[in-house]
Amino acid sequence: MRLAGAILTLVIGAPVLLGAALTLATGFGWQPGLGRVALGWEGFTEALAAPGILTSLRLTLVTGIGAALLSLAASIPLARWLVTRQSASRWLTPLLAVPHAALAIGLAFLIAPSGWAARLVSPWATGWDLPPQIVTLGDPWGLSLILGLMLKEVPFLTLMTLVAAAQRPVAEQMAAGRALGYAPGRVWVRIVWPQLYPALRLPVLIVLAFSLSVVDMALILGPSNPPTLAVRILRLYGAPDPAQAVPASALAVILLAVMGASAALWMVGERAVARLGKALIRTGHRGVSRRNWSGAGLIGAGGTLALGSLGALILWSLASFWRFPDALPADLTFKRWASADWAGPALTSLTLALVSTVLALILAMLWLESEDRSGKRLPLGALIVLPLLLPQIGFLQGLTTGFLWLGLPPGPVAVTWAELLFVFPYVMIALAGPWRALDRAHLASAASLGAGPTRRLLRIKLPMLLGPICAAAAIGVAVSVAQYLAVLLPGAGRVQALATEAVALASGADRRLAAILALMQAALPWVGFALALAVPAWWHRNRRGLRGGVA
Amino acid sequence: MKSLFVALAVALPLASPAFADWAQTQAEAKGQTVYFNAWGGDPRTNAFIDWVSDQMQEKYGVTVEQVKLSDTAEAVSRVQAEKAAGKNDGGAVDLIWINGPNFLAMKEAGLLHGPFVSDLPNAKYLDLSEGSAATTDFTVPTEGYESPWRLAKFAFAYDAERVSDPPKDMAGLLDWAKAHPGRFTHPNPSNFMGASFLKQALVELAPDPAALSQPVTDEAYAKETAPLWAWYDALRPLMWREGKSFPENESAQAQLLADGEVDFAMFFDPAAPAAMIEQGVLPPSVRVWVPEGGTIGNISYVAIPYNAAHQAGAELVANFLLDPATQAHMQDIRVLGSFSVLDPAKLDADAKQAFADLPTAPALPTLDDLGPTLPEPHPSWMTKLTEDWAQRYTK
Amino acid sequence: MSLELIDLSLTASDASAPLFAPLSLVVAPGETVCLMGPSGIGKSSLLAHIGGHLPRGFTASGDVRLDGESVTQLPAERRGIGMLFQQAQLFPHLSVGDNLAFGLSAQVKGKVARHAAVEAALEQAGLAGMADRDPATLSGGQRTRVALMRTLLARPRAVLIDEPFAALDAELRAEIRSFTLQHLQAERIPCLMVSHDPDDGAAAARRIALG
Q1: What total number of domains does chain A contain?
Q2: Which chain C residue has its CA at the smallest distance from A540's CA?
Q3: In angstroms, rounded to a whole number, what is the distance separating the alpha carbons of residues C34 and C40?
Q4: Which chain B positions have a beta carbon within 8 Å of A504's beta carbon?
Q5: C4: helix, coil or strand?
Q6: Is B78 near chain A, with CB under 8 Å?
Q7: Number of domains forming the structure of chain C
Q8: Is residue C115 assigned to a domain?
Q9: For residues C153 and C151, what is the distance between their CA atoms, to the nearest angstrom?
Q10: Which end of chain C is more exposed for a tag (fewer CB within 10 A), N or C?
């Protein structure tokens, strides 16, 4: 128990805190390697004096809070639509599994002024022989970025809503509300959803933190002059002058403050909305019964954008040459697939994913099993929350320096460790529920038959939890494959995974190559989820009591 | 051994060729993996480095791993971070494709291994006389701390199907933009290519171009850049997205040209458009255009960090890059199309013939088409220019 | 073999008084004692405590002895106390035969001998040839019989039964009850059963009211 706690704290907690502490120290000018140990605010004044910094700040706030708010708002009618359509909600998983970078590249190929969408309607409907001079991609308000973030976050929040709804008598409450004469939409928004929100608060805060600090999507979809704070920090860290690490780190600290303030603002907003909601409930307005058009509409719009992005990626990966305004490439060929080096990065991503996921599973099992054996909960919730709520850019650069001090050079080991910090929380969240929900009577039975703890673990728990373990592994693989900064910074260029290659190529000249890498990046998690469904189903093919292991 | 070597190299700043025992370097290099940190945004260059890697493996048993950078500055800051962490040997970066400001920064910070160029056997094909192109990098003397490998020269590309009359010079570009608003842009000046565009304009528009070869002063800067900013302020609102947003780099701009979002792209490699046509990235109607007065040009170099883990292997790679056969292969339009850095006068007949036999392409300019090569301003100009640009136009 | 309870009492963490008055009891070999009492009094918790499965949050006092040896400090798996639950807890991921093999005492060595022991147990339960069946496909009565055989194969020193027949319909209940109690008697295993079915009480050798 103590040992498990120590291992988890050391492997997950210590790197996050070390990285964050080094970032904080660097922000105040502490660079002992360069002989600077005097602390001061110069980094902050320099960071805040940079041209366009206020625009960057505004951009970060608009895109971050906007994406979180709109995603949450969209998830409400969507969840209502899906709560009675369990089979349809399965389609959320493939969208959830697509890495942010891959989706962003596909979306960029779709919505650019010269993108597939414009090509499909030109010139016959629009008269555009040349791409229109409209601003879509990289627009100064970050609307494209918000759209990209929403495509990822709406399915996540919707799924979280459905998970919370599954634990409550939603159908009965809907029936009760309607029996009192309320329109179904009203019952959902005013009665059911507020009960689910407490379970959504952490996911929403994670979405908020992520949207405020995202780098890969912002590089691809966001404006560049100036960019968001997170992208600015990355650029400063990459500057030739090492002294730039000071304003970069100071800016990372500022970003953390911005995130903290946004979270606080969010929670104040929660109360205001709750008060308003209660006042509305007391009015007793029944509302008008309508079809759930917003839910269906959102499904349609999201599905179109997702499929369009995927289609654009597939077409570009097969295009020989594709001029505007042709709706389709001149001809399709596998030549680029044959000549491009996608296998190397794919293998790297796969290896990183497998190693980090297996390590995360071992750590999660260590945690859960030691809880089972001691009968007490480990008070380590921060280990799950911290890596997801702190800005990645705020501690990964510090962590890279810290690793170097500890004698761990940039490379695959450092990257695996950094990825583990993000893979572990999701694997833990995915596994903890089913693990703790496992019928204890089975374990008592096994114990009464003389099976000790190890035998109970190996012969009863793990086989019975095969489905959830596979699901957690698939989530782990998806999280790992999606990591960008965790490869870029601790890898120091020596580790070339699909995410880093795809993002680098997204601003390169060869769209076909970028499409191939993005498709591969999306394919790995899909294969993972397909296996997570297939393996337990095959293994337990003759066991009716264990069907449907994957949620 | 290596640290001794470094110590000696530092102690003898102008080491004689005899000092380095090349056979010993070769022996030491065998089996090493050289991490070649090179900008990775150009698939052709990446493919060429792959070829170099195969050759090095075959010929010398040296493995070359390209670390694909999105900006060369990443490698520089990596070495600096290592120095900051006290990692004075066994560094992660063995060889860097480097130029101008990054070279100056590393050299001034004492982050480079060398001088080593004169130790390379293939250095005999270079014109290493004082002040020659192969010994100055953006007006900064290289002093043997970096080895040349490819020639770079600024050039525009345009789609001849859409643009029939490319402008004659930078002033003409403004007139063209007035007639075709929204169809011109340049990469963000925080990127090397974007900065080069500003420099090209500066070199053309400065009242006294000779002043640019000196380190920048506030006074000279104000005087020499005044016409540039006047010209740019007129041009900017006529640019793509009204000059509020810029492609990240030359590759992104090439994509905009291919998509028809803009009518020009720009490269620091006159052969790039021909090669990109060959690859199907650019349409076959793209041609090269250079301003009449000539364009700025420089030589791309490779340098070795002071703490590189595999210095012997890195020197072997630098030497291989100077091999006449390598240079001819590199100049092949189907490979890279980069012009050779070797001094033609020092080549033997076979090597000369190898260059003469290289294929041509419609989009590939001859050296005559390209006009004179103008000297790069001192690096301090570029730093100030890009900072000033950010102050003026990043709101 | 005998099962002995000495001044056994349980207190829930949020309660000040014990759940029931201290209980002292000796169950002789082959004897079945039925504990009866209102629901919520802690009958199941008492069984869990005797078996070593009590979750954290209870304070227990008193002693549990098997053949005079105290087992209170031993973990569940080393007490040798078999348990039969209301819902026959067959492991859903193992076949019927593997469920039995999981229970079969490790003292039975050798593949052939173990296989034979499993087959024999199936035969006794009237389930010959069902070793490869998915437990989910068995009827309630069949499951209870397999669970009993699995418990017996572990060679327990005592068996605890928690309302084992409540889930079965009335007709089957009598049959399975007599099957179970006969086997326990034949093996001379002391058995403690909790139930509020008077028929269970009638079938037991003694009835004790908890309170």
Answers
A1: 1
A2: C93
A3: 16
A4: 40-41, 68, 70
A5: strand
A6: yes
A7: 1
A8: no
A9: 6
A10: C
Tracing tokens 């036999």 back to the chain, one arrives at B357
CATH of the domain at C49: 3.40.50.300
- Note whether residue A251 is domain-resident: no
Prediction ipTM score: 0.86
Give the chain C residue nearest A542 (alpha carbons): C134
A225 in a structural domain: no
What are B223-244's pLDDT values in tens digits?
A: 999 999 999 999 999 999 999 8
Give Cα A28 to chain centroid, integer Å: 30
CA distances from A549 to A161, A465, A538, B247, C90 (A): 20, 8, 11, 47, 18
User: What's chain B's length in residues?
Assistant: 395
| A–C CB contacts, 8 A cutoff, strictly below | 90
For tokens 């096994």, what's the residue? A446
pLDDT tens by residue, A420-460 = 999 999 999 999 999 999 988 899 899 989 899 999 999 99
In a domain, C189, yes or no: yes
Spell out which residues of chain A touch residue C56, defining contact as CB-CB under 8 Å. 375-376
Alpha helices in A166-228 (DSSP H): 170-179, 184-187, 193-213, 216-221
In a domain, C154, yes or no: yes
User: How would you class A478 by CB atoms within 10 Å of its CB: exposed for 0-12, middle for 13-18, buried for 19 or more?
Assistant: buried
Radius of gyration of chain B (CA): 21
Q: Do A54 and A137 meet the contact criterion of CB atoms below 8 Å apart?
A: no
CA separation, residue A465 to residues A353, A367, A469, A531, B112 (Å):
21, 15, 6, 15, 56
Strands B295-303 and B95-98: antiparallel
The CA distance from C95 to A388, in Å, is: 42
Structural domain boundaries, residue C19: 3-92+138-209
Chain segment C12-35, per-residue pLDDT in tens: 888 888 888 899 999 999 999 999
In a domain, A475, yes or no: yes
Which domains are assigned to chain B? 2-151+298-356 (3.40.190.10), 153-297+370-393 (3.40.190.10)
- Asked if residue A27 belongs to a domain, the reply is yes
Partner-chain contact A225 B69, CB within 8 Å = no
Cβ B260–A135 below 8 Å, yes or no? no
